[in-house]
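Researcher: Here's the sequence for the chain we discussed earlier.
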Amino acid sequence: MPITPPALHARSRAQILVSDVSVSLGAARVLTGVDLTVTPTSRIAVVGENGRGKSTLLHILSGALPPDEGQVSRIGTLGIAEQEMSTTDRRTVGQVVADAIADSLTALDELDAAGLALAEGEDGAGARFALALEQAEALDAWDARRRVDIALEALDAESDHSRPLTQMSVGHRYRVRLACLLGGDADFLLLDEPTNHLDRAGLDYMTERLRARSGGVVIVSHDRALLADIAETTIDLDPTPDGRPRVHGGGYAGYRAGRRAERERWEQEYARQQEQRSKLEDDLSAAQNRLVSGWRPDKGTGKHQRATRAGGLVTNVHRRRAALEAHAVTMPEPPQTLRFPDLSVRPGATLVSAADITVDGRLPEPVSLEVLGRTRQLVTGPNGAGKSTLLSVLAGDLCPTTGRVRRSAGTRIAHLRQESALPLDRRASELFASHQDALIATGVFPSSQAVGLASLGLLRSTELGRRIGELSMGQRRRLDLALALSARPHLLLLDEPTNHLSISLVDELTEALRATSAAVVASTHDRQLLRDLSDWPRLGPTPSLEPAGS
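Model: Thanks. This is the structure I predict for it:
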């Protein structure tokens, strides 16, 4: 949670310069030839598939990781929010706030000391006071604590300064840290998936603060609405034919248009090279067939004629083989896409019904709903309203305190939880295979209906054999989704399904959710997903809901 400042705030002189940087993690090349300049007015988004090096690039910018090749220079102070947080930080909220605005507090102390020295007529006191005043004004130091307090309230973060972080949930700790960064005084903010654990009001506040702040911002995010509102330049780390990142101007719309054109060119060139190679393979096969049949000419043909024909056929085979070997497919295969398995349809059937359910301390207001086959439902509301609790009750993972829940016999329900609980020591392919075996052994479906992990397009072949602890947060989220789909559910219960997923995968997931035959109940704060699914009915577990048009 610490903010890592160099010695002095640079303000208008602040700059981060990245020149031809490349990074490898183990045997895998993660970043290749990155060039980037970050200024006090920069609003830069870093996007890409999970595991493509987005967090690594932030570590390069912050100085936490040195590049294997290239140069990085920094002028100015940095405020950093990483995806994962320490659970052993024993500071109180007040101590975290004080650390966040330490430079402002120091500047005010120095201004007081310089003023006292000036009043006592010390030599050089005038210059000292002028310098101290300049630094305090640059930081707007007098308003620092108020800015953080406003941010704490706006993000629904803990405002009791005496409360230890160890007594708070991950989401509450995260919001305290983000509030300190948004209200703090760093020249640059480096934010890794900052929208996690924020509700609609918190997202709106963060968006406003990032747009208005007088300092550079580099943000890694899957939140398409945030990127549309914030980003002016986009660094795309998705796979490219030459392995180098692409830089798109024109905001989020410019990125989408540029990426679409790049992907179309890639697919066309790959298809062209594959078509040419296929033709050469057919030519070689035909030449080889003629060589075989050439040794068996029509009856009555002389030996001399057979020998003459054979030499030409052999030469033709050699020529075709040389042409095939010379035509290497230089264009790599385009990235895979998400493919939902065929999910069973139970149209009209009541899959799950809930009547007046509550859960003490988690779902205070009674909720009733009925989920029919192939229906869609969005669950909305602020943090703490009970959305995750409701999904857990529907899935059968949690018993309600009052009310009743009925599930139709034979209904297959898959629950994608907000937080992953995968065993980190297992390999992805082994865990998926054992999960499938258990489904078959318990009679959920026959072995002929088993789903192959590779067929879903969620993990690359190089990731299937890795231990789960070696996968990125996004790759683990992909595995969670794969496990949910592997049950071929009649009902998908999705809790913040876009968390940690790349933009391209979220687009593909949105299309799949609209097309699937399964019933879907989804809880999300993803503003763009809510816009894309605006025609789905909404249910709120408490009266305090976002309006249907939000």
